[in-house]
Amino acid sequence: MSNLGLAVRDSSTMLRRNLLHARRYPSLTLNLLLTPVMLLLLFVYVFGDAMSAGIGGGDRSDYVAYIVPGLLLMTIGSTTIGTAVSVSNDMTEGIIARFRTMAIHRGSVLIGHVIGSVVQSIMSVLLVGAVGLAIGFRSADATALEWLAAFGLVVFFTVALTWIAVGMGLVSPNAEAASNNAMPLIFLPLISSTFVPVDSMPGWFQPVAEYQPFTPAVETLRGLLLGTEIGHNGWLALVWCLALTALGYFWSTSKFNSDPK
Fold first, then answer.
1. CA–CA dist 257, 105 (Å, integer)
2. Mean pLDDT of 94-106
3. Closest Cα partner for 222 from 76, 88, 83, 62?
4. How far apart are CA 69 and CA 128, in angstroms?
5. Cα separation of 127 and 99, whole Å?
């Protein structure tokens, strides 16, 4: 079998393994998924009217439209924490050591984790999106091309964060440390334009919020779904996705391929 065929076969096997783990132990994914769902319900039904007035909207429905795109991307960050924990478990429980002794494609272990995490993240985004639709989110003005671009952005952003989460899992000594190391993936959306516009923040803090990975991605997704101005955020989101994917990939593969101590 060719090297490519071997990689595809073994990666498919590892993907099935990770999806089976997710199906048998859904509690971690569900717990992480509850964070964006609860924040969505909290900010819409408790703070919705006040937040809508703060962004210049008329009622709660305006804030629903504003917050849902950001919560969709926050869902990705939450779900990929489970990836870091899963990778750390594999590294510390001995299964990776056994895989190293077997005649399998070396990169298939990481590829299986990444593809499995992307599938779970997209499913989680769809679920949060369904909750958003149920409470009033609408995107009537988006064209088919804009919907396709929005989906592509979500997938690309998921891949980027997943590779970062894999690297975090590989360098963590245990599952608890992996969960803690991956907490910035939840914290960063809180200091982005997910909940309030950047220009409403203190002047000294605005550059921090504007040029971190989540804000350009949120503004781009918001623009695609709602028809708001995207400006330079589209290019920034693309650059962040490319940079994070490359960083996560080379970090993860370098760590994984290094000789175990």
1. 12
2. 73
3. 62
4. 10
5. 34
Specify burial of residue 134 (Cβ count, 10 A radius: 0-12, 13-18, 19+): exposed
Residues 6+ apart with CB under 8 A from 255: 167, 170, 171
| Residue 19: half-sphere exposure toward Cβ, Cα within 13 Å | 15
Is 214 in contact with 184 (CB distance < 8 Å)? no
Number of neighbouring beta carbons within 10 Å of residue 94: 9
CA angle 18, 11, 213 (to 5 degrees): 70
pLDDT at residue 1 greater than cutoff 70: no
How many helices (H) and strands (E) the chain has is answered by 12, 0
The beta-strand segments (E) located in 63-217 are: none
As given in the structure block, the two tokens for residue 179 are 């969960």
Distance CA 231, CA 216 (A): 10
Average confidence (pLDDT) over 250-255 = 91
Closest CA to 178 of 71, 81, 77: 81
Cα–Cα distance for residue pair 227/128, rounded to 1 Å: 21
**Structure-token pair, residue 157:** 């952003």
What sign results for the dihedral spanned by CA atoms 131, 132, 136, 140?
negative
Q: Give the C-alpha separation, 187 to 238, whole Å.
A: 21
DSSP state of 1: -
| CB hemisphere CA count around 103 (13 angstroms) | 3
Helix (H, G, I), strand (E, B) or coil at 261: coil
Question: What confidence tier does 48 reach under pLDDT thresholds 50, 70, 90?
Answer: confident
With tokens 């937040």, the residue in question is 51
Q: Please tell me the distance from the alpha carbon of residue 97 to that of residue 134, in angstroms, as a whole number.
A: 46
Task: Give the per-residue pLDDT at 36.
Answer: 86
